[in-house]
Every structure is written in C-alpha cells, then in structure tokens.
Amino acid sequence: MVSIEMAKRAITGDEEAIVALLKVNEDKLYRIAFAYLRNEQDAIEAIQELTYRTFKKIHTVKNPAFIHTWLVRILINICLDMKKKQVKLIYKESIEISYDPDDKQLEMANLIEQLPIEQQELIYLKYFQDLKNDEIAKIKNIPEGTVKSRLHATLKRLRKLIGKEEM
C-alpha cells in the first residue's frame, strides 16, 4: 500500500514518488484495465495513458489518502473511452467476432457486455477487483447504499440475461 508521505510527495510533483506510486499499484491497475478491455495490448495502452495523465494532473489531487481512488477513477475513465472508440471501430469496419460457445468465461463476459456501462463497471469493481462496497462508493463518488441497491439491480438483470441464454 502507498504511504501518505509518498502520496504527498507525488502530489507536489516529485517524479520518483510518482513512479514509486505507479509501481506499487501496477498489478492492481493492470487487472482493472484488463477486466474492462479484455485485451493485453489495450490494457497496456490504458496503463500508459494513465501514467501520462498521472504526471500531468497529479497536482489536482486534494487528499493524499485518496490517491489510489483517484488513480482507479482515471483508469476507469480511460478504459471507458477506449471501449467507446472500439465500438465505433467495430461498427465502422463491420467486423464479425466469433467465439466458442462452450467457453463459459467468454459467455459470461458477453453477458456482462450486454449490461449498461454503469452496471458493467459495478460488476468489474465488485467481482473482478474484489473491492468492498465502501471502496466502490469512494471511487464512484456515491453513497454506499446506492452501491448496494445498484449492485442488487445489476445482479437481478444479469440473472435474467443468464436465464434468457439458457432457453
């Protein structure tokens, strides 16, 4: 975990502290990017963009205790932007994606993709990143109760999609 002292140094522009901050969080940030983008090259590209934005905008962080939350929020925004661009590209080039229907993980990933972006984000944060509801609330900037109710609605919708697929 990142010390408050390291976070304060990073916010003031200490490049060594920024690099150390990114290094400490590297694995978790990569897993988040990969969970969103499901492609190694895109995940690496998202991390590179995060690194650039971190160096440019870290001075805007107001509370050093929330540096990790800030990094995750920036990364999620990058991933969402990349997904929007991918959808436009796929539509534009009319690429057909084929997959093996026996692959349960890919099936589940495709079902999750059918959810709205906000619900996908909750699923990724809760079940792929193992974040607690209060951590998700901080990242999303919403009350914890709202996280719980949205998760409940998301899981209900996902169950309906699973039921529909089995028919």
Any overview of this molecule?
By secondary structure, the chain is an all-alpha fold. The protein has two domains: 97 residues, Rna Polymerase Sigma Factor, Chain: A; 69 residues, Winged helix-like DNA-binding domain superfamily/Winged helix DNA-binding domain (Arc Repressor Mutant, subunit A). 77% of the residues lie in helices and 0% in strands. Helix 2 crosses helix 6, helix 3 crosses helix 4 and helix 7 packs across helix 8. The radius of gyration is 18 Å and the shape is globular. The N and C termini lie far apart (46 Å).
Compact description:
The protein has 2 domains: 1-97, Rna Polymerase Sigma Factor, Chain: A, CATH 1.10.1740; 99-167, Arc Repressor Mutant, subunit A (Orthogonal Bundle), CATH 1.10.10.10. Helices cover 77% and strands 0% of the residues. The protein has 8 helices and no strands.
Q: How do the helices and strands follow one another from N- to C-terminus? A: HHHHHHHH
Largest sheet: none
Any idea what the radius of gyration is?
A: 18 Å
Helix segment tally = 8
Distance between the termini: 46 Å
The strand count comes to 0
Instruction: Domain count, please report it.
Output: 2
Nearest-integer average pLDDT: 84
- Give helix % range: over 70%
Shape: globular
CATH superfamily membership of the largest domain? RNA polymerase sigma factor, region 2, helix turn helix motif
Strand fraction: under 5%
- Which structural class is indicated by helix and strand composition? mainly alpha
Top-tier CATH class of the largest domain: Mainly Alpha
Segments where pLDDT lies below 50 for 5+ residues?
90-102
